[in-house]
Write a structure and sequence with these properties.
The protein is an alpha/beta fold. It contains 8 helices and 7 strands.
Length: 252
């Protein structure tokens, strides 16, 4: 895709202080967008935004707080004047373990971060996008919501919710010219990697999980960023309601 496919666009990317979100934020800036680099890890957000430059605004946000989400959207509009794209990337998991060993507090946290946050962000951004005549919302689901692995049952359920709510949002918001898609990565070597495995991060344990991915490697931030750039661009103007696997064939 050409370097200016998001020229003039303004995006919020949550969880952009590292991992997949950092990859998306950097790719968006390279494609011409101005980007709010949002993360609960303020140091990470500032690092990424500082390396991107003037096109980026770091915002420390707890996406499970309605007040902080509202403040994030307000800061975006104050700084950049509009909002065209939202990437709900921030997420968490529980350790890979038998489902009955996950405690209630951890279960609640997984659903607050992975699902409730999208509810809160949607309530803030949809009115803005409606007033502007359209927009793009990308929710980072997971292959876990399509072809679940054992040991991650409650995480799988949260990502299944993300995948399905993305499709439902797409139908409801289509008359407003707001496109909604889910991006579904397979495991990547991010901050949650060892929790996903439930095992020490050793070459032997990595090999066990890589063996389930036909193309033979883990997902990289650049893989997610490429899809997120395409789906946010005008080249994807007729694409809404898809669950887009970025998985090296894992869900086949």
């Amino acid at each position: 895709m050409s370097a200016d496919v998001l020229n003039g666009k303004v995006a919020i990317v949550t969880g952009a202080g590292g991992g997949f979100g950092e990859g998306v934020a950097r790719a968006y800036a390279l494609a011409g967008a101005r980007v709010v680099v949002a993360d609960i890890n303020e140091a990470g957000a500032r690092r990424v935004a500082g390396e991107i430059g003037e096109q980026a605004l770091p915002v420390r946000v707890d996406i499970t707080s309605a007040a902080e989400v509202g403040a994030m959207v307000a800061r975006c509009r104050e700084k950049f004047g509009r909002l065209d794209i939202v990437v709900n990337n921030a997420g968490t998991t529980h350790k890979n373990q038998p489902m009955l060993e996950v405690d209630e507090k951890t279960f609640d946290r997984v659903f607050e971060v992975n699902v409730k946050s999208i509810f809160l962000i949607t309530k803030e951004v949809v009115p803005v996008m409606r007033a502007q005549g359209g927009g793009v919302i990308l929710n980072v689901g997971s292959t876990a919501g399509i072809r679940p692995r054992p040991g991650l049952t409650w995480y799988n359920a949260s990502k299944g919710a993300v995948n399905l709510l993305s499709r439902s949002m797409a139908v409801e918001l289509a008359p407003d010219h707001i496109r909604v898609n889910a991006i579904c990565p397979v495991m990547g070597v991010t901050g949650l990697f060892e929790s996903f495995m439930g095992l020490p991060d050793t070459p032997e344990n990595r090999a066990k999980f890589v063996s389930t991915i036909p193309l033979g490697r883990f997902c990289q931030p650049s893989d997610v960023a490429a899809v997120a750039t395409f789906l946010a661009s005008d080249a994807a103007e007729f694409i809404t309601g898809v669950e887009f696997p970025v998985d090296g064939g894992r869900t086949i």
